[in-house]
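User: Hey, quick favor. My workstation is busy. Could you predict this chain's structure for me?
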Amino acid sequence: MKRLGSIPAGLLLAIAGETAAQNSAPSSHMVFASGSKGDILVNEVRVPGKTMYTYYETLGWGGSAGGYAGIQEHPNGRNFIFSIWDNPEHKAPIRSVFTGHGTTTEKFGGEGTGLKSWNFKLPWASATWYALAARAWPVGQDTYYGMWVRDGVSGKWRHLITMDVAAANSTFNGGLDAFIEDWSSTGTSRRETNIRGAWKRTTAGAWESLGNARYSVNGNDLAAGGRSYNFRGNWDGGKARDATGDYFYMVAGGSATAASVSNPSTHAIPRVEVRPAYAPLAADRVAAVLLGTDRVAVSWEIDSLKLPQFRYVLEAFDNPGFAGKPLSAAEETAPDKSADTLALPAAGQGAGTVYGRLTLIDLFDNRAVYPAFTLRNGSLAAVRPAAGAARGISIRSRAGSVVLASAGAETYSVDFLDADGRIRYGESGIRQSRKEFTFKAVGLGQGVHLLRVRTSKGTLEAVLPGIE
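Assistant: No problem, here it is.
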């Protein structure tokens, strides 16, 4: 073995490796106690600065489908994470049943195994609050787990992932955990996370306001030989206040960081709210079209600045007050579906009047009810203009085309969506002269489609029957 002075080179490398292994910023937790089983978790996170190789867990839970969600500062970019651990109670591997734009999934190992999702396409910004919400719901003998994020910059809600766990009636168990983790031995760098507005909804439907937290630093990490031994005094946590209100905070790493509290310590932020205060769901538009003589297609678009859709119910009645038992109905727990068809009763296929009602239920089970259509003597309007309908847009259903013909230059977008609300074809640009889109030319095929046209002068939409 080559020697450096009187010390073997291999020993020096071993010592260097051991020292590096003790250079992580201390991992710490903020746990909000709860003894209830829940079906919804909510928490908000803000990261004041930028420190690479850091994971800021925002939602952590136990149970037969325990998991975690949060945001991460990664060399490939900032991202959102949602993961669930495998459990012996699962009858099959965890799988994804919905992935939002930019979300990818992969199996993970190390500290347990399971399914991990992350999204680098929805970047998060420093010094900005983001709301993370997770919900579990039964589907047959399985349980679905979904995650939504409220973008702190745009204010829009986005559905990132839904996973299928092959275990019946799984829930969010135990307290809600938030933590801060340096996963690459960079204890010289200071990192901080802010947390506020934690909630759990119990399986009985009651909201628990989680305003009491226990802050702690992993003792094993601080002990001699532990992963954070060289920064064993560089941590802090508690509560603070700024222009946005009260919040909990955790700091880890950085040579100037010093503890101002004991390990562990408890902290509380009094709350008077009885449930999360996010604006409930609202629909921007509802449109309907008659399909032959025995079915009607209804499509809707929700306001993305308000709580996202979770479920819908579409019904037909024989009276304008929607009283009594519906003549027919279609309903589904489908967070990302924005169109459906409804069978018409015999009364709606000839003489008589049928009244349609659309009920939208959001992520927190707030309900919004809208008249969907009125079918009188077998007649139903095919196009319902949006509020302040656009000038210069005409939709010619028989000719199978859309014409943009208003004077002057304008920006435009034309989208054709299928019955599940997925864009099958889209085009946008700047129009200088008359422009026409032909339905057949875009190759949509058969089925019910929503046509949505937006220009700088307004918006118009229609639900179209099958395209030959």
